Amino acid sequence: MPLSTSLALILMAGSSIAAPQSFDLSAGSATRQTPYQAGGHGMEPGSTDDDFLFSVAVPDGTYRVTLTLGNRKTAGETTVKAEARRLMLRNVATKKGQFVERQFLVNVRSPALPPPPANAPGGTAVRITAGDAREYTWDDRLTLEFLGKPQVASVTIEPVSAPTIFLAGDSTVTDQAAEPAASWGQMLPVMLDGNVAVANHAKSGATLKSFLTDLRFDKLLSAVKPGDWLFIQFGHNDQKQEWPQTYADAATTYPAYLRAYIAEARRRGAHAALVTSPERRNFDENGHIKDTLGSYADAVRKLAAEERVPLIDLNADSRAIYEALGPQVAPTAFNDGGKDKTHHDNYGAWLLASAVAERIRAQIPELAPHVVAAPFVPAQPPSAAQAAIVPSRAHSDVRPAGN
């Protein structure tokens, strides 16, 4: 899937979609019978009539996707995910003969970086892993996944410039590529209207330091525009003293690195918001969540006040959610059938994303009008049945890095 660095640089430098591209995706259409080939469009391997992945080759950028959903002969219920399982539309029902139009924004990126000037330090590509290279994220195409009982008449893709929320973080934020793991960052797009894009650059196992040395922050900053937002959530891995190269002390280096991230966003005319890390699911004998993040969440709260940036207190909200579910039900919101106490499944990711969306609505006036999620009270979370999300076909028994 991934481009070579040289080809990616060519795409970034000069290639673009000059006009909207439209495709017939109705059952039996020629497009539905065409396998994807590099530089073109078509179906990804494993596609069926019940769930399929459609890709279009595009350069880096943000794209407005317009879907016409429906079928003259049968009813449908369509869920759409983009790239690595970013939730865009959820359970859109259409009656027999009914057609509806839906729009959303998808951010697409390759590993390529604008090359630094001669003799200047830096790199020409993000240091992606072999696992990254197998995902529908760091490649040359926009990929849409259609699930449930999809009835899709057509898709139109066109490049746009739009306000963007960039996410920098770890495995609890990133776009998890395979079931059953999921993170709040990949659920956030469906909770916003079609006028704000989400560019999720988070990486499993990442720390504030590794996000820099892997050139992931360079990639993020290369796309930031004035008026965009940078949401920053690190802590789970930064606190690990057994990782000496990336350990950051909560009292000194951790807030110092966070402050530098904020400064880089501001230098480009963007806004920053700090997100406290969600707690791990460890209950005490009284049914309360144990504190495993020490002073890291407090350091984020203190820095947000000092820097006068919005605070998304997901640490507090996650505690309220888990305790409301209780020790018996809370595991159903976590990866690996609840054996994993750090990473979430679709249900847990939906709950945390709902908490983030509610905090945005309450604390960030510039973004609040774009929140379309239902009101959310962490102490009163919806049931798994109410928040059910059609699973993707991709599955992995490997836990996310940094567990």
UniProtKB/TrEMBL annotation:
Residues 169-322 form the SGNH hydrolase-type esterase domain. The keyword Hydrolase applies. Transmembrane segments: none annotated. GO terms for molecular function: hydrolase activity, acting on ester bonds. Keywords: Hydrolase, Signal. It comes from the Bacteria. Residues 1-18 form the signal peptide. PANTHER family: PUTATIVE (AFU_ORTHOLOGUE AFUA_2G17250)-RELATED, RHAMNOGALACTURONAN ACETYLESTERASE. Belongs to the 'GDSL' lipolytic enzyme family. This is SGNH hydrolase-type esterase domain-containing protein. It comes from Sphingobium yanoikuyae ATCC 51230.
